Description:
It is a single chain. The strands form 4 sheets. The protein has a 7-stranded mixed beta sheet with strand order 4-12-11-10-7-5-6, with helices on both faces. The protein is α/β, with parallel strands linked by helices. The protein is globular, with a radius of gyration of 22 Å. A hairpin with a 4-residue loop joins strand 16 and strand 17. The chain has 2 domains: 80-311, 3-Layer(aba) Sandwich (Aspartate Aminotransferase, domain 2), CATH 3.40.640; 316-385, Aspartate Aminotransferase, domain 1. It has helices at residues 51-54, 63-73, 86-97, 110-129, 148-153, 178-188, 214-227, 248-252, 296-311, 314-335, 362-369, 394-412; strands at 30-34, 37-40, 45-48, 103-107, 135-139, 170-173, 195-200, 203-204, 210-211, 230-234, 258-261, 272-276, 340-346, 349-354, 374-375, 377-378, 383-386.
Amino acid sequence: MVKTPPQTTGITEQPSTAVMGTYNRYPLTLVRGNGCWVRDHKGDRYLDAVAGIATCTLGHSNRAMRRALKDQLSRLQHVSNLYQIPEQEELARWLVNNSCADSVFFCNSGAEANEAAIKLARKHGHQRRGIERPIILTAAASFHGRTLAAVSATGQPRYHVGFEPMVEGFETFTYNDIQSFEQLLNRLEAHGPRVCAVLIEPLQGEGGVNPGDPDVFRAIRRHCDERNILLIFDEVQVGMGRSGRLWGYEQLNVQPDVITLAKGLGGGHAIGALLTSQHADLFAPGDHASTFGGNPFACRAGLTVARELERRQLLRNVSERGEQLSAGLHQLIQRFPQQLQDARGWGLLQGLVLREDCDLTAADVVKAALAQKLLLVPAGAKVVRMVPPLVIDRREVKALLSRLERTLEQLNA
């Protein structure tokens, strides 16, 4: 039986009857964009401080990206990993030359990159530490993705509800608390090797925009070295320049053995990556694979992001605009002390922290900001996250802060 589709008259804000209801969407239909600005189907213009959740590195409808992808589509977009892919090799070479890694596996998302890291860590545990049932240590309030193993690694029980039993082999410690980490590690290894890896974010994004403590991360690195445990940094959100450095690990001055990457790498196109140092590169042919991972189209997007980061010196822009944004947020805290508590983050990954004794939630602020034509995103119940495109300029940061101030005035009234 062929179903007759419903009659439509164009774009509508009514929920689709065909798309599965897995999202609580805002009443906004976006149809086009340019740089840091997007328009809805009514023609209203919004300043985008979400960037597809830290993904649209070069902003919307970037000229270099349009040209590169149009050219790629005229040649080749997908062939699978049965064959050599020049664009893949070129992007892998750029990533290796600009990081502490020696090799790259390409996939399609951050969750997939973390899944690959989990498999790699378990193989390391079996082969290098002789562990029968390896354990990976992760941090409370972490977020590593929505696939079953990645969500099991995520240190937020609310993401587990309804999907039990979780994948075994994960234990959590308190983020930025070396005593908590050491107690857990010593307890697990009291009678022999059990831990194969530590999977941790240099800055927790979804968990509340919490930057890592360099002293704690250095201590974790030392413990991993002493016991031959892999140190894996989830840089899905903070990597590719968002912190003001190319990698989050540079902010901490601690080199990991493995890096997971996605979001900003493709500038809005689906690509993820697992980066490994030489000693951690344990995958053999057949151990792991991806049909779409690293196809010519996705890698051309990644190469365009990489080249534009260099050509336009965007890391300097991220640092300068990040300082401007941070200073403006601290001024807002002084203006609204009954509602606001703190501002924290690196570069263009900033969080505005609401007071716990305030009735406002981050979702309230995000929703109210829509009336001021400003797009924001929560990072937990009490943190408003700002992750605009890395091309945002001084005037646009000023406009962001002005619109946020009007939002808080409206809520305060």
